[in-house]
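Researcher: I'm comparing several assemblies side by side, and this is the next one on my list. It has 652 residues spread over two chains. Same procedure as the others: predict the full complex and return the structure.
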Amino acid sequence: MILSLVLLPQAASETPEEKGFAIAKEADRRDTGFKSSTANLLMVLKNKHGQESIRKIRIRTLEVKGDGDKSLSIFDNPRDVKGTAFLTFSHKRKDDDQWLYLPALKRVKRISSRNKSGSFMGSEFAYEDISSQEVEKYTYKWIRDEMVDGRACFVAEFYPVDKKNSGYTRQVNWIDKSEYRVWKVEYFDRKKSLFKTLTMKGYQKYLDRYWRADEMNMVNHQNGKSTRLEFSDYKFGAGLKDRDFSKNSLKRVR
Amino acid sequence: MKISLFLIVPLLTICVTGATAASVSEFSGYVAVEGRVFFNEALFSEQERGSVSFVLQPEYYHEWENGSSLTAVPFARIDSADSERSHLDIRELNYLWLSQNWELRVGIGKVFWGVTEFVHLVDIINQTDLVEAIDGEDKLGQPMANLSYPTDLGTFDLFVLPYFRERTFPGISGRLRSEPVVDTDRAVYESNDEEHHIDLAIRYSHSIGDWDFGIYNFNGTGREPTLVLNLDEDGEPALVPFYELINQTGLDLQTVKGNWLFKLEALYRTGQGDGFFAGVGGFEYAFANIAQTGLDLGIIGEWAFDERGDDATTPFQNDVMLGLRLELNDAASSRLLAGFSQDLENASTAFSVEASRRFGNNWRLSFELRSFYNQSEDDPFFSVRDDDYVQLELAFYL
């Protein structure tokens, strides 16, 4: 009782924007400290006729103190792009640094990271959906609380800071209150109409702390296509170092 | 079929430390069939109107638990028209020794340096496999020991190159050739050691924020021969490749500013006539996700310059190149690159289109068109003025 009396004035003075920011900040805090991770990703692209095509990607991530993560994605499939790799140094406030490795030419190409709204490898995921989600990349607003599949969730809107290059005006996130996991995201395009919906399934806990979904499904409501991501072999504390995320490392990935 | 197979007893002793549970072996590569049709009747009676080629490039890779690895990539092409284009090569056969603080690659390898799209000026470690394609992007395997030392202040690379590979040139019945033909059997070297001269290169490269750059010095037998008019065994005129000992300092520089990429390659070479500068610079601008269609469009502009002017051993002595890159970002990864080049000192122009898309999970179909206009007699492309062609290649990736 005393506790609630002490907390009440504070809670009452918190604006929806502050509450939204606090939710994002807490979700970020809970996901901090994993140092590095690796995972295998099967990407299933489905067109509006139901035809599927697949991509197999290995993902390596390195946490960087005080800045966005570094990540390396290596393609194993389709076979004609086998060995192609993306290296990204994401940043909290400025454009990400991005390089593409083309194995046939042994060439490392710097690429512009402004293409945030563009499709990642022909999928319904845009570059901005798969890039490192940093607190500083959005502004926030808590909308309401809602029960989803028996879970008490915050519903919060995320607004991209880089309005000019983002494909979205807002994202509506459903985040559970107990573990701060994202279960659903609705993306609204520049005309403010519903564009895509992302849902997560099969969350698992790693190192007794870090939650990762086994499956993500992105449905594009405007073109009828969808992309399913299936993650496997998640490894945390993989002991990766800066050196594994360099231009030199791109040349020796397989 | 001429066999220019380069067989070298590998310089390395492969330390097979016994395969562990975490070691990986994999087999990949591709087979392809290629057809070319030339628009015009051949200029020279030995040449044909078209050709069919078969290509095989398997790849074997083994990685040990400690990160060290072995790579083997043999290559073969059989061509219906040109016996010089039918050839074998070992693109790669090397062992990578990954230590805590450095990497050592020993064997036959491939290295690319450079940033620009249409001219590959500073790229020097590997010899150009010119019979493969005239864009100079296909390379022969180069025997090397490469020590790479990455630090927080950039990466230092040292190359010891113990054996020289001669450039390949189309034979008498091949299109896209010089007139007279290059007689590759009679190459002449400045070095008394000929192809056994040990070439050295050292390179420093780094990325700082939006900038990537590399600077190197190469000392050894130049990859770009001077073609000297001479007589062949039958007393017919022939061009003999002369490979000089050169020293070359090169720079490649690139920066990204929003949707812009700015690029520069420059070199200074001595030992091939008077010392000279050459450079190529330009930009690429990306229009991303046009009208939310997922379509990416890139506009490329480059200018290449060579201080030697008409005496340059490359076709790019003062030329402007414009390009258009289109990526559909569809499931088939459909893409197109169109290029247009204009010589600023005569009327010569050239046009090219490269396009490809995937079928299913393992097939890729590629289309290529090249055409040449108003070639003047002093342009290196004069002898290919009627060699405009279209090419289709269907490749199956293992």
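Model: For your comparison table: Chain A touches chain B at residues 45, 47, 53-54, 77-82, 95, 97, 105-107, 110-119, 121-122, 165, 167, 189-190, 243, 246-248, 252, 254 (CB under 8 Å).
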